[in-house]
Amino acid sequence: MQSNDAQTLVLCALSNGPLHGYAINSAIEELTGTRLGPGSLYGALTRLEAKGLVESLDEVERTRPVRLTPEGRRVLERELHAMARVAAAGLRGLGVNPA
Amino acid sequence: MNPVRMLLRLYPAAFRERWGAELEEDAKAAGRRSWPGLAASAAELWLHPVIWPAESASQRRHRAAAAAFTLTLATWFAGRAGTTNDPRLTWHAHRILNVTECAALMLLGVVMIMPLPRPTPYAVTALLRRSVRALAVPAAFFAVGLIIVHAAQPAAHSTPRLLITASYWLTLALGAVQVARVVGTISASAVIPPRPARLRFGIAILAVGGALTAWISLSTTVAGHGFDVVSAVVGGCALILTGLFLSILRDLNDR
């Protein structure tokens, strides 16, 4: 996965707790400045659910919030650590202090 | 019907049931610029039936088996069209390994992946009833075509002969579609999906069969004098279908 990968962004958005589709996209917009297309967002959610990384909660007003599973939390943590290592190495190479 | 609703209808039913309402709301809010993405996402989902929302792991395996079976029928259809129209793809030209032998290998793969009827009278009866109902029309077309050919014996290259040939291929295609529909939509109460290891092994065999068909066809394309269009088309189709087999296998392994 990469930092702009739709699945990683969805997992990041869910790290603060359960959200429904529209709220996930708003959280991603806050994080990256752009929203995912609806096709990409729900495609990513479908894949993540199939992998067992997110799970659905009971329906609330025609929407069903989703949350990270324990496995999803582990995968996200591992990915973010890997990205942080790559980012730190790249910034060091550029002579930029990773704040 | 508004365009967003029309685009939503392109998605698999299982996806629509799970995400349809939310996707529709978001797509309406996003406006026209989301339409190409919606169409692309629907097309992509059809290529990955294993990831569709499912109630159980066995439902996902059933979908994988049905998708692999459909791809096998498509490969067989391409191979049949190729060997009928191009003698260079038959055993006369490839005595060691030919497209027909690849079909035999793929038959072994099909045996591995096929959902088996549950050993109950209800399941067997339901399966037989569905199969007879689905195949009645193609079988009737085939029988009528056979009777006409034997009774009228139309001359080669005549219009009636061309019509009969066209209806033969349409009947084959219709039969293949109907068989794929029976395998894909038969109730879980009537069949048992293959076990995970058996399913993976079967799909791997099908991928090897598809790859060998592509290799034989594409090597034929450039082996003779000049470029052979028929074998190039068959090889290209088999190559794409092999990629799709591998994609199902990857989706199964990702889980």
Question: What layout of secondary structure does this protein have?
Answer:
The complex is a heterodimer of chains A (99) and B (255).
Chain A: H1 6-13, H2 21-32, H3 38-50, E1 54-56, E2 66-68, H4 70-93
Antiparallel strand pairs in A: 1-2
Chain B: H1 3-8, H2 13-30, H3 35-46, H4 57-85, H5 99-113, E1 116-117, H6 121-152, H7 159-185, E2 191-192, H8 196-223, H9 229-254
Antiparallel strand pairs in B: 1-2
Plain-language structure description:
The complex is a heterodimer of chains A (99) and B (255). Chain A is mainly alpha-helical and 99 residues long. Chain A has one domain: Orthogonal Bundle (Arc Repressor Mutant, subunit A), CATH 1.10.10.10. Chain A is built from 4 helices and 2 strands, in the order H-H-H-E-E-H. Chain A has helices spanning 6-13, 21-32, 38-50, 70-93; strands at residues 54-56, 66-68. Chain B folds into 2 domains: 1-46; 56-254, no CATH class. Chain B contains 9 helices and 2 strands. Chain B has helices spanning 3-8, 13-30, 35-46, 57-85, 99-113, 121-152, 159-185, 196-223, 229-254; strands at 116-117, 191-192. In chain B, helix 5 (99-113) packs antiparallel against helix 8 (196-223) and helix 8 (196-223) runs antiparallel to helix 9. Chain B is globular. The A-B interface holds A 20-22, 25, 35, 37-43, 45-47, 49-52, 56, 62-64 and B 15, 18-19, 21-23, 25-27, 29-30, 33-34, 37-42, 44-45, 50-54, 60, 251, 254-255.
